[in-house]
Structures
1.
Amino acid sequence: MRKSLLALVAAGLLTTATLTGCDDGGDTGDTGSDSAATSNGGSETITGDVGIGVILPDTKSSARWSTSDPAFLQAAFEKAGVKAQIVNAEGDKEEFKRLADTLLDKGAKVLVIANLDAASGKAVIQDARSRGVPVIDYDRLTLNGGADYYVSFDNEKVGVLQATELKKCLAAKKIANPVVASLNGSPTDNNAFLFKDGYDSVLNQLFNDGEFQKGPDQYVAEWDNDEGREIFSLMLKQYPNLDGVLAANDGLGNAAIEVLREKGLNGKVQVTGQDATTEGLQNILAGDQCVTVFKDVKLEANAAAELAVNLFQGKKVPAAAKLKDPESGLYIPFVKLEPQAITIKNIKTVVEAGFVDVNTLCNAKFKRACRNAGIIK
């Protein structure tokens, strides 16, 4: 299924507007030999020698790529005293490759990449390999890419947590035989399949048992929230009796919630998410989203930075786990981290971890809800 779907995407034949039930910085400069620089600009912004190069995918699919990840990665590299440059491809696959080429030309000894798709990710890995530079797949596995390491969370477990908590939310609302839709991530991101494998393992059993009714099931190209909003609008027109939405991340969850608000259905239709973004957490505080999944990006960034620094220093690092690439069949050394489901009951966990700013989360609009949730006094 993955190969055939990806082939359709590559050929431009996947129509995401139809409901066919198809099976998420600042300016840079030469900051010295012991610091990291962060930039959202193009390859021309990469200056000076590069020890470790990091390429993030975009700033649209999830807020994390412009906030949490670059900040935590930069702090980790600075603490290690290793020069690094962190750049963002802004959703442009050709720019992604240009950035990698420039970083390698500037002397990068290790690359850390969160790919936009398999093709551009693989091209970067091959370019690096031709120069003897190891590559770490960060958060997203590059299918058939053969990266040296993969650092991410247990992404199937993310999906299991989403579906398990959605079941609890629907039960708490005493909704019998609910109709549940799936708003999946990008079909060019292997993580979207892993999340779906996880939540489908729970949902399909409920569908088969007749406990839930299967609603529309659609992928959203590029994790595009605007497209997700349009797709969900069509879903709701086709299934006005929807009771639950398994949205793959907070951005898509919010896209669905915006549509539900227009119809006066927010809080009535149960919606999931992922990434524990400020927006997602505020939707939980408002009662419009029932769960998000907290993947502590600081842990992920620190793990990737530690691995990259060791590789930069010429050390071989064994990984406790391996993940099979479904395209190549190769087993990639995998640094696997554990996700956590977040509901209104434990929402303060995310604040206590320092993942979100309490003043931003608990602004005037959400201050009372934050008090009720025990986040502030």
2.
Amino acid sequence: MDTSERSFARRIDLTSLQLFVAVCELGSIGRAAEREFIAASAVSKRLSDLEATLQTPLLYRHTRGVDLTPAGESLLHHARSVLFSLEKMQAELSEYAQGVRGHVRIHANISAIVQFLPEDLGAFSREHPQVKIDLEEHLSTEVLRAVQEGTADVGICHAGVAGGHGLQALPYRRDELVLIVPRDHALASRAAVAFDDTLDLDHVGLHSNSSIYLAMREAAAASGRTIRLRIHVTGLDAMCRMIHNGLGVGVMPRRAFTLMHGVGDLACVRLTDAWAPRAISLVARDFSTLPLTARLLVDHLRGRADPAPEPAEALAAAA
């Protein structure tokens, strides 16, 4: 932060920002003053000082209240973000006062959350009950962005997506994509099927930016074809229910399907494609500079990682 940026930060008053947001939300200086238990003249003075500091008008004042100028709309967006961050900081620090001894922020994709993290994080929490874990589900591309921007300490996503983003990656788990069909479907009796053989069928797919859907789309494009995508869903349980009701076939991780006990009368069929076996990675900007609690969690997850594939197994996955 250079000198001008430090000077600007010192001149911005948080109370004035809070009052500005209140005025914007209520559309009136008088109503904002009542809500915040402060004199209307004091609110008006703070807003005038804020405009002088920023050297631009923030509000159009009229007899019915106030409206935002373009600069005011921009400030409202940033002010809300600043105040939200302060509230979050207060909540986190209060947890330390109540006995929390560490805090790790994780963003992970749906495959890792459904298949592995409940057991792995549960075991870690039993060993380290005073470490707080914040876990959020995101698409793999969003997981990487969160780690890059520092929103997450550790990300968990598929290795194929993790490469080329300037982040460090460590192996964590492996999964296998399979085709899910109704039990009475013509493909249900097959031991294995190539994804290309399913492209004449309607598909139920995950979000268009999910790693699973991107792999499916690339495979279809390599065959010079497109996926007959009938429905997009946001969860694997919803996909199973759609498939059970005859709305198409779908692709999901085998272990996730196994864990979906009783979600439809369905069968899974192995995919013969090279992209069906996948590696899930832990990602960070720099594992060596993570806080101690985050490094403890990474070591724990690495201790529960799948063993490296045997050479014959690796060759079969690449075939």
3.
Amino acid sequence: MVFKKMLSAFGVGGPSVDTVLTNPNTRPGLTLEGQVNLLGGDTPANIEQVVVGLVTRVEIEGHNTEYAGVMEFHRLPVSGPLQLAPKQQLAIPFQLSVPWETPITDVYGQRLRGMTMGLRTELAIARAVDKGDLDQVNVHPLPVHERILEAFQRLGFRFKHADLERGRIRGTQQTLPFYQEIEFFASPQYAGTINEVELTFVTSPHGVEVILECDKRGGFLTAGHDVFGHYRVSHDEADRTDWAQVVDGWLRETTSRYGSLRGAHGFGGHGHGRGPGMGGMVAGAALGVAGGMIAGEMIEDAFEGDFGGFEE
């Protein structure tokens, strides 16, 4: 499957750029391959740089407001300075690594409602940057993600929505400036305890940190509140674990808490025993927004509109 779009980067008679992905489907930790095709315009052009970058839509909470912005979170220069002659055709191949924490956009070939992802191509000429070509990218789950999502389905949970929240989860090894929340309606067997569950994966080459946020129902004398669970699993456990049993255990343990998480779980623990922690993991697994530098670039330009067709 190939996404192809020809744009004139700098007006009538200027050079144009067309990025072609060999395959727009990928997974966290893998790559995207393709080539940037340049076509010279009516006059010679001194191109300073050609860059490709992954962009996605992120929810941002501000002063009593919440809005969505498009953020670039990973980029790769594919060419340095070059001169493009009139009508010259030039193909620049590239291989872009996909960060391990890249959010999942597609499960079983279906787009998760609320998710967007694209590869944007930038062409820089004479200090003007054209953020021209934008191609849809489909990020599929790794096996351990897939098994955990299957377990929620087997336990009767219904998918509601997915989005990306700007901020960081305290106590995790998160490196991107946002995290994904995959929201489920509670299944009947949990309906007396939970309203909804939000699932977050923080993935690395070694495994996956799983964060659960359960919207716990209130009782006769108690108000409803959110409770959190934080677990770690390794990639090689994907096909040798009864995930429905594990996820059920996680949910029951998480909802039995009245406060924040009191201990950490090591790889392979699955909540059956207390591990030594995750190297500085705080006792509470609450979702918190940390200050400091933001790695991604907020893009407030015309490319907001290009994501409209990605939604279900």
